[in-house]
Amino acid sequence: MNFRTTNKIKTINDPVYGFITIPSELVFDIMEHPFFQRLRRIKQLGLTNYVYPSAHHTRFQHALGAMHLMQQAVSVLRSKGIEVSHEESQGLCLAILLHDIGHGPFSHTLEQSIVKGLSHEEISDLFIAELNRQFGGRLELAGRIFRGTYEKKFLHQLVSSQLDMDRLDYLSRDSFFTGVAEGTINTDRIINMLTVCDDELVVEAKGIYSVEKFIIARRLMYWQVYLHKAVLAADQMLVNILRRAKYIGETEKDIVSTPALRLFLVNRVSRDRFINEPEWLEKFALLDDYDIITSIKLWMDHPDRILSLLCRSLILRNLFRMEIKNEPFDHEYVEKIRKAVALKYSLSPVETEYFVNTDKVQNHAYNPTHDKILIRNADCQLIDIATASEQLDIAVLSKTVSKYLLGYPKDIKV
């Protein structure tokens, strides 16, 4: 694959942080690579713009923002006497820059719809390994930091933990572009309170209130933005569209779409096949949101009535009604809706599954069993934020909240 290698140190104007500096020629070259440029064409929040019209920001913007915060974090840690070499600093910047490169079209929404059984983190790892090969081993350290196999644990925590540069950026950026002020956090304060104890990334006691605000903001953003019922309805419809298109593609061995998407519709691409046949990574790298939207617009007039109806509804924002409850829906109630949908649209039981869906979503703002956020108190003891917090009951915020979903067409009366 050919790409430009014009070496320049550039400054980019970002609406969230102001000026972002690209720290090295290698980082610039990676950004210029087609694998990374693809992130310009993948929205950070999928179909959230159906609810928050300004939420059109991309994975490309998020990656640059996270890299900017990483440079700030390295500077702060060095000022506190924590050794981070030039090579480690560059490895950190590359690891956070590429942490989301494995996302497919519409980010999390279609994660299991394009390649079954493979997470975007695993695909990111494959991309990093391929870029390392193409750049003659110069991303070796970045790959080890990304995977958590490098000897300094705290470097990986800066990339992936409950208080990493990824989360700090996406909360700030998503809050900015949706206009949801409840998600606003003080990234400068949090980063300036970071330090390292016994190879653990920790927060100085003075930063505890900013971390509490971060945890609350994350919880509010999940229920107000990421798990908004209209967003969930749009996501559900998009998943069903791809499921129907794959069914048609695999059974008829052909379906009109963009060439890049067609390959994944007419072929059953399993996890093992994707990993063991390197050419599929190159094919995946050609996919972005534009393939999906273009194909959906083509399918609005597809002879398959189910596919065309779903596509027309999504394009025209005629979204499913989404009911949400704290406990599972009564089976008889769901069956009543299924029968009403089947009757109205003359559908078989199998076809009805594309129009009536049940699901469950979960959210916890803080997970005390995974990579805890540790506060270093005045006596230099490390205490879990759930214990150290005096203002909030973090233990309550740590509990997993489950909600049950039922989606179906709005014109169904029950």
Please tag this protein with its features.
9 strands, globular, alpha+beta
Description:
By secondary structure, the chain is α+β, with helices and mostly antiparallel strands. Helices cover 51% and strands 10% of the residues. It contains 21 helices and nine strands. The strands form three sheets. Strands 3-4-7-8 form a four-stranded mixed β-sheet. The chain has a three-stranded antiparallel β-sheet with strand order 5-9-6, with helices on both faces. The protein has a two-stranded antiparallel sheet with strand order 1-2. Strand 7 and strand 8 (382-384) form a beta hairpin. Helix 3 (59-79) runs antiparallel to helix 4 (86-97), helix 6 packs antiparallel against helix 7 (140-147) and helix 12 crosses helix 13 (259-266).
Task: Please summarize what this structure is.
By secondary structure, this protein is of the alpha+beta class. It has 21 helices and nine strands.
Query: N-to-C SSE series?
Result: EEHHHHHHHHHHEEHHHHHHHEHHEEEHHE
Q: Radius of gyration in whole Å, from Cα? A: 23 Å
Neighbour order of strands in the largest sheet: 3-4-7-8
Task: Detail the poorly predicted runs.
Answer: none
Topology:
Layout: E1 11-14, E2 18-21, H1 25-32, H2 34-37, H3 59-79, H4 86-97, H5 111-114, H6 120-134, H7 140-147, H8 153-159, H9 165-178, H10 187-192, E3 194-197, E4 200-204, H11 208-226, H12 229-252, H13 259-266, H14 271-276, H15 279-284, H16 289-299, H17 305-315, E5 321-325, H18 331-345, H19 349-352, E6 357-363, E7 374-376, E8 382-384, H20 385-388, H21 394-398, E9 401-408
Parallel strand pairs: 4-7
Antiparallel strand pairs: 1-2, 3-4, 5-9, 6-9, 7-8
Helix pairs in contact: 3-4, 3-9, 4-7, 4-8, 6-7, 9-11, 12-13, 12-17
